[in-house]
Amino acid sequence: MTHDKSGTRRRCRARAELTKKDAERLVEIVFESIIESLNHGEKIELRGFGSFRVRERGARRGRNPKTGDPVSIPAKRVPYFKPGKELKELINEHSATALSAADASVGNDEPPRMF
Fold it and tell me: Is residue 52 within 8 Å of 81, Cβ to Cβ?
């Protein structure tokens, strides 16, 4: 299952009791702010969640996979996300809970409860 920008808007709207238009604008402002900061070379740290930064990739030689001919790959900047310690712990905690629920439901006709 994939969670996209519209899903983020819906969750913000429901949890913060915002109008649809306000939730859309809030999500857009957050994303625009992150992109603008990264374009200025700034690192973004969201405590407990993770950090965003831009990494520089140097120019290099590669090969065209179809023909095998050498090609020049230009230098570029790529976004990078590093998850924070708390996010990792929450993900692993949720995974362990889900696995325990799945193990307990073996031989049971009911699907495991995730939440």
Answer: yes
pTM: 0.66
Token pair listed for 14? 């429901």
The CA distance from 82 to 45, in Å, is: 9
Cα dist from 38 to 46, 51, 59, 68, whole Å: 14, 11, 21, 35
> Which structure tokens are listed for 85?
């310690």
Reference 28, options 54, 5, 10; nearest CA is: 5
- Report H helices in the chain: 5-16, 20-39, 85-104
Residue 9 CB burial class (10 angstroms; 0-12, 13-18, ≥19):
buried
pLDDT tens figures, 14-54: 998 889 999 999 999 999 999 999 999 999 999 999 999 99
